[in-house]
Each structure stands twice: as C-alpha cells, then as structure tokens.
Amino acid sequence: MSPTKKNIDINTIYNQLISILEARKIASTDQSYIATLYQRGLNTILKKVGEESTEFVLAAKDFEKLGLAETQNELIHESADLWFHSLVALVHLNISPDQVWQELEKRFSQSGLEEKASRRHK
Known about the structure:
Elements lengths: L9 H14 L9 H8 L1 H25 L2 H24 L4 H10 L5 H9 L2
Helix pairs in contact: 3-4
C-alpha cells in the first residue's frame, strides 16, 4: 500500500452504509434520495442499477483505452455507484448483503470453472 494512502476500515464503512440504507427505509422522501428510491419501488431501483452498470462498462472501456488518471477516477466513481445501488436493491428486497459475502466465501473452495459447471446441473 502506498504511504500516501490512508488505511481504510472496510468493515466500518460497510456497517455504516448498511445501517444508513436500513434507516432510509423509513426516512422522509423530502430528505433522502435513498428513501425516494425505496418509495418508488423495485423497478426504479433496478433502472438505476442498470444505468450504473452501463456507466461502469463505459468507464472501464475508457480507462482501458486511455489509461489516464481521470478515466481511472471515473471508473472508481462508477464502481462505487454500481456497488451502492446494488446494495440499495438488496436491502429493498430484505436480502442481507452478508448473504452475498457468504456466497463469495463459498466460492473460495472451488475454482471458477467448477462453480460455473455446478450451476448447469441445478
């Protein structure tokens, strides 16, 4: 890790974010963007996830092509937006993001090719 970067406590950030997302379920739509998304429903949230997915793909292509700090920053920004809105969707559906982490953890015990092949038999 570069000495100019501060250490990031991922668990603290994650826990704070999930707490905020849960709290926004009952927040006023006048004061919360997330509450507005929840109030408008799953289709609105999924449209946002789709939009962010597209922006992520475009930013990744720009970064690969240009490799500039500006395009890297844009890719990081769009990654954060995509992760964030994916979490909003999960919380809206009352699915704990911890379940996603558990699924990822299970995959450490097998190769990606094995995991993909196992889905064909379900």
